[in-house]
Specification:
This protein is an all-alpha fold. 75% of the residues lie in helices and 0% in strands. The chain is built from 5 helices and no strands.
Amino acid sequence: PHIDRLLTLNDAVVLAFRRHSGSNTMTVIQAAALYVGLNILVLLVLALLVVRHRLSSAVALGDGGVPHLTRAVRAHGNATEYVPAALIGLVVLALLGVAPWIVHVGGVLLTAGRIAHGYGLSTNDGASPGRQIGTLASWVAFLWIGGASIVMAFL
C-alpha cells in the first residue's frame, strides 16, 4: 500500500458524509435532512436544560412549583408540539420533489423560531421578544410548509 493513499481522519469523515453527485449543491432531501438534524439538536438542548433544572431543584416529576424548571419544561414541551409536524412536512415536500429553496425557507423559519422561542421562554417569565419572534417565525413556517404541501398535492 502506498502511504500517499492512506486517508486522514478528516478525509475519511469528508468522504463518509459527502454525496458523490459531483456537485456542491445540496439536494432537496439533504436540505430536509439538515433541518431534521438541527431541530433534533434543538430538542436535545431543551431536554438537557430540563434535566439540569431538575437536578439543581431536586424535582424528579413535574415542576415542583420551581419557576425556572416550569419554564424549561414548557420550552421543551412547546418545541415537541411544533417540531415533529413541521419536520414531517419538510420531508414530504422533499419527497414530492420541490425545489430545495422551498425546504430551506421553511426549515430556516422553523429552526430560528424554535431557537428564539426556547431561549425566550427559558430565560423570561411572561412575554418576551424571543417568545414573540419565535412564535411568529414558527407560525409562518407552518403556513409556508402547510401551504406548499397543499399546493404540491394538486400538482
